[in-house]
Each structure stands twice: as C-alpha cells, then as structure tokens.
Specification:
By secondary structure, this protein is of the alpha/beta class. It is built from 3 helices and 14 strands. The protein has one domain. The N terminus is likely disordered. Keywords: Signal.
C-alpha cells in the first residue's frame, strides 16, 4: 500500500512539472510522441479500466470503459456509438464477470481526475485519466501472451500483447485480441 501511495504522489508531482509520464519503475519516456508510457519489464500487469455502471452523460469520443451492466470493454466512437471490444458470442463462456462490491460502498468524487499533457492544469474534459496532448499517445503495458502471463486478471484490464502484436482486453472471463 505504501508503494502505491508513493507512486500516486510521484505521478501528481510529475504531472505538475512534465507533460510526459513514465510508470512502473521506468525512469524516462523513450519516445517524444508519448504522454504516458509503462515499464516494459513489468510482464504480468496491465492497465485496468474504470468500472462504469451507467454510460449516461459520457460523451467524450475515445473514452474506453469496462461496462459492468453487460461485462464488456467498450470504446466511445464519435461521442454517440459504443463499440464492443470484448469477445462476445452471448454464451456464458464469453460473457464477462466482475465483482464491483468494493466500489458500490464508496462515494464517487465526480470532479477528481488526473490530466497529463501541456494543458493538464486547465483541461476541463470529463474523465479519471485524461491525456491532453494532441500530438502524443499512450503506450499500453506490454505483455508477452497476457492470457498465459497474467494470473487472475482483473476484468477491464488492457495490454499490448507482444507475442501476437495485438491489443488485448479481458472482460472477466475471456481475453479478446484486436489487430489494427
């Protein structure tokens, strides 16, 4: 817990001084076109998406969430259309699960967010983590064969699979792999 608090504090300190952030033991960004980059040496972890119980009011194109109403990872296209990124043939074998009991007892702080980028301090975009730079991207955590390497993955986790060279998301039951 102490390491998590220290890491969060470092992120907030870094946000106030830099438009680029390295996470997970990584000391520097390796590419000037990156806002947020994860350490390549962390082979069994990913980025867990926010668990959302209602999509009402979410209109920011490019938003990625874990929808607990149907247990799917989703992406908002053009501010109106939710695109399913999870494996889904509607059978019990592919419909995800998530235990959200820990979050249902908490009060959401709707105005709390972290914004990374040149406009981070003044950005008004809704979101928990907002990357504000128009010319920089986020590099996902890189994991070789996440379906084998990540033991007991959390629903809503996403990584870049270095073996398959694909974007991978976990919906609570199965991994889905997306190739550009």
């Amino acid at each position: 817990m102490k390491n998590i608090i220290i890491a969060i504090a470092l992120v907030f300190i870094s946000i106030s001084t830099h438009a680029q952030i390295a996470i997970g033991g990584k000391q520097t960004i390796t590419n000037n076109a990156v806002s947020l980059e994860f350490d390549n040496n962390i082979e069994n972890r990913g980025l867990i998406l926010p668990y959302v119980e209602t999509k009402t009011g979410i209109t920011e194109t490019g938003t990625i969430i874990y929808d607990v109403t149907d247990h799917k990872v989703k992406y908002l296209k053009e501010g109106t259309t939710w695109i399913n990124l999870s494996e889904d043939d509607t059978t019990a074998a592919t419909v995800g699960v998530a235990d959200i009991s820990i979050q249902t007892t908490k009060v959401e702080q709707t105005n709390t967010k972290t914004a990374i980028g040149a406009n981070g301090a003044t950005d008004t975009t809704d979101g928990i983590l907002v990357l504000t730079a128009a010319d920089k991207a986020m590099i996902l955590p890189k994991v070789a064969s996440p379906h084998l390497a990540i033991i007991n993955p959390a629903p809503g986790i996403m990584v870049y699979d270095t073996t398959k060279r694909q974007f991978a998301v976990y919906n609570g039951k199965v991994w889905s792999f997306w190739m550009p």
